[in-house]
Amino acid sequence: IAGHPLLVFFFELLRPSRTVVFREVLEALMRSDFGLPGDTALFLIASLAAGGLITVRRGGRAVALELLNVQTLDRADEIALGELIGDRDRATLIEECTFLSSTDELGSFGLRQQRDAWKEVVAFKGSAEQLAADALARLSQRRDYSSFRGFPFTDLEEKLAALGALAREIRVSYAAKEGLEKFLSAWRSSGLSAADVRMLKALDRFLRREAEKFIYIHHYLRHEAVEKAGGLDSSPGGDLDSLRRRMLELLEDPLEGVIPDEGAELDHMFSAFRERYIPLYSGLHQRHYQALRPPALPRGAARALEVLRRLAGIEALDRPPGL
Q1: CA angle, 212 as apex, 207 and 213 as ends, to 5°?
Q2: DSSP letter string over 185-250?
Q3: Tens-digit pLDDT profile for the chain (323 aa)?
Q4: How many Å apart are CA 284 and CA 74, to the nearest integer?
Q5: I want to staple 207 with a disulfide (CB 3.0 to 4.6 A). Which of 35, 68, 138, 158 is the partner?
Q6: Of the candidates 184, 182, 140, which has an alpha carbon nearest to the alpha carbon of residue 161?
Q7: What is the rounded CA–CA span in Å between residue 252 and residue 116?
Q8: Cα separation of 280 and 267, whole Å?
């Protein structure tokens, strides 16, 4: 700022601890030696507000960044220097809200970082509301499935409801400071953690993409023939039974065994299991039905049987003429 005379002049018009009448600042810019046209002065103010360096107020409330334009600025009442959220809110944002990607870059926290964080929170609102509603609906559809007995339905439903309530507390019409303050207050009251948010996102992806495969694998491994196959695997390095037991462990605790990687490990193990199980089952099936076949007849007996079969096919013999 020090290297830009116009910006130095502008910020000298503001006061550190109180607001300044908007119209006075605008007129000062237009009457100054810089002689800014009205539209140019409004554009300057809008740019500084969008960068978080100042706050434009109307009716005692900051004008949200999404609503900043020449028309809304022309109806503003006051201008103030941009303010940062307090130390407690800043600590909550940086230490607890790690599900927001912008918090990874907060080595220092200034007005620009505050603006970026608020923009991500505003985007989070829509996705969180959609996730909570969709995941609750999909989860309720699976409540009576035997394959989903390992899911803690009540706990998950409570967390999804808390996520939906948190999203509703995000007021997109608020400016960055006020919006973040309200969001972070709601976050502390929600009982959620960053790990919960990441888990719920993974749960939603699982319910949309992998639930049917999960059900198929569960019923496949519970089939009577598959249960018996482990003890019949005599191939070198045969490990069907251990593979099956390991997969069942993942299925019994899906939040730990399946959701984090969206079933990738389970899918890999199931493919390995089927590569061993299918040829084993095919061989056992063939040997079983071969054992049920009647023994082969000697050649002479086979010829006699064929003669008898042909004779049995004759329905009647005509009497020769004259007899």
Answers
A1: 110
A2: HHHHHH---HHHHHHHHHHHHHHHHTHHHHHHHHHHHHSHHHHHHHHH--STT--HHHHHHHHHHH
A3: 667 899 999 989 998 878 899 999 999 999 999 999 988 998 898 888 877 788 888 888 777 767 777 777 878 899 988 788 999 999 999 999 999 987 766 567 877 788 889 989 999 999 999 999 999 999 999 999 999 999 999 999 999 999 999 999 999 878 788 899 999 999 999 999 999 999 999 999 999 999 999 999 999 999 888 887 766 665 555 578 888 899 999 999 999 999 999 889 999 999 988 888 877 767 665 665 666 677 776 777 778 878 788 877 777 666 667 66
A4: 84
A5: 138
A6: 140
A7: 41
A8: 20
Quick one: tokens of 287?
């040997």
Q: Tell me the residue length of the chain.
A: 323
Q: What are 23's two structure tokens?
A: 């119209």
